[in-house]
Design brief:
Length: about 425
């Protein structure tokens, strides 16, 4: 079922794409209609992205807020405040193809959930859902960013767009564009009916899935009226997406524009595997056990043998070190025992000679082998005492005869 859009709806859609500062506006970093641009990375394959977990790396860019992934409900796109426009946009392009998105729209007046294809020349294909209108889904398209006021369509949805997930599919060839809802064909656009193909979307597309505020107070009045009214930011609004299948009808590495016409005929395909294809089909990182199981039996035997040799060498080195340390310890223990035995013998010798080792005075002579160069004795009276100097000693007073030490210089004549 297709109802033509009125002037207000068309103006609102135009504003939502090119005017509203808070909408998920389309733009192009390089417009191939006016200059030469770098090639677009191709998808070149078919893949279903399940959003029960973070999608594979380098597949999508995330803008204007976080996406939360849940095993049961899929990806949650939540608008919590003004300026939130949470969007996943693919890093790859497909050139004619098909997408199937399993989506439950966000509720709330003025809140727009969307599935958008867009190209560098601003060709566009849309599914849009108004949070204040649970009964209908809306389809739309643009060619080179032009609005001819007859592009939009509205389609009733059994059970409504807010309470359950529905399959929203678009199928695209160079000749026609189709919209499908839960497996039911609801709309067809023939290329020749879009301004004699000039406004027909026909250049490589990216996929964007997101939520935005059509009813933001700063939006144009036409956008607010189309969206259904002003957004209530006091409560969060969440869109859920379980999965997105993307099929590229072309195969190759890159897509480039050979001229500035914006025609599908100007698109050149570089052969080879795309980066997306290689990322999606590369083997997952293997665990150590997996790597071990993949080794040939001969290699495993060699590893076992080498490990055995290394183990034996380590054990031998440890044993050598152990016995070396043990011999060293035994030698040191023997020397210590020998010193103790010498000390014991010397003490026994002192005791047999009637001497008390603890009472001996050391006179500065070196003790050797139990004998000394001087005797240990306690003198009866030290030199210079009242008993007089010892016999045969030098008397500095001369009272005991001539001085025992002659003068070094004798000047007597």
């Amino acid at each position: 079922m297709l109802a033509k859009s009125n002037l207000v709806l068309a103006a609102a859609l135009f504003s939502s794409v090119f005017v509203s500062p808070v909408a998920a506006q389309l733009h192009t970093d390089c417009d191939p209609l006016v200059k030469d641009c770098p090639p677009d990375p191709a998808f070149g394959t078919t893949h279903t992205f399940n959003f029960n977990a973070t999608p594979p790396a380098n597949m999508f860019n995330l803008t204007a807020g976080p996406v939360e992934y849940n095993p049961d409900t899929g990806a949650a796109f939540t608008m919590r405040k003004r300026g939130d426009s949470v969007t996943l946009m693919s890093n790859f392009y497909f050139f004619f193809g098909r997408t199937e998105v399993l989506l439950k729209a966000a509720s709330g007046t003025g809140v727009i959930s969307s599935i958008v294809w867009s190209s560098d020349v601003l060709d566009e294909v849309d599914w849009e859902f108004k949070g204040g209108n649970e009964s209908f889904a809306f389809s739309n398209y643009f060619g080179k960013g032009r609005q001819d006021w007859h592009n939009g369509g509205d389609h009733p949805v059994k059970g409504g767009v807010l309470n359950d997930y529905h399959n929203y599919t678009s199928v695209w060839t160079k000749d026609q564009l189709e919209w499908w809802l839960d497996g039911e064909h609801v709309r067809t656009l023939l290329a020749k009916d879009a301004n004699n193909t000039d406004n027909y979307p026909q250049t490589p597309m990216k996929l964007s899935i997101g939520i935005w505020a059509g009813g933001d107070p700063d939006a144009s009045q036409g956008t607010i009226d189309w969206a259904g009214g002003i957004v209530d930011y006091s409560v969060p609004h969440t869109m859920y997406v379980k999965s997105a299948l993307v099929e590229d009808y072309s195969t190759g590495k890159e897509y480039s524009y050979s001229d500035h016409s914006g025609s599908w005929k100007s698109i050149k395909i570089v052969s080879g595997n795309s980066t997306a294809y290689e990322n999606l089909n590369k083997e997952p990182e293997k665990s150590l056990s997996d790597k071990w199981n993949d080794l040939p039996s001969g290699t495993k035997s060699g590893i076992y043998a080498a490990a055995g040799i290394v183990g034996a060498l380590l054990i031998g080195a440890l044993a050598f070190y152990y016995f070396k340390q043990r011999r060293r310890g035994q030698k040191e223990a023997a020397l210590a025992a020998q010193r103790l035995e010498q000390d014991r013998v010397e003490l026994e010798g002192f005791k047999r000679g009637g001497r008390d080792p603890d009472a001996l005075a050391f006179d500065g002579s070196e003790y050797k082998g139990g004998q000394s160069t001087a005797s240990y004795a306690v003198p009866d009276s030290p030199p210079g005492s009242s008993a007089g100097p010892p016999e045969k000693t030098w008397d500095p007073t001369g009272s005991n005869g001539p001085a025992a030490v002659p003068l070094l210089h004798n000047n007597a004549k």
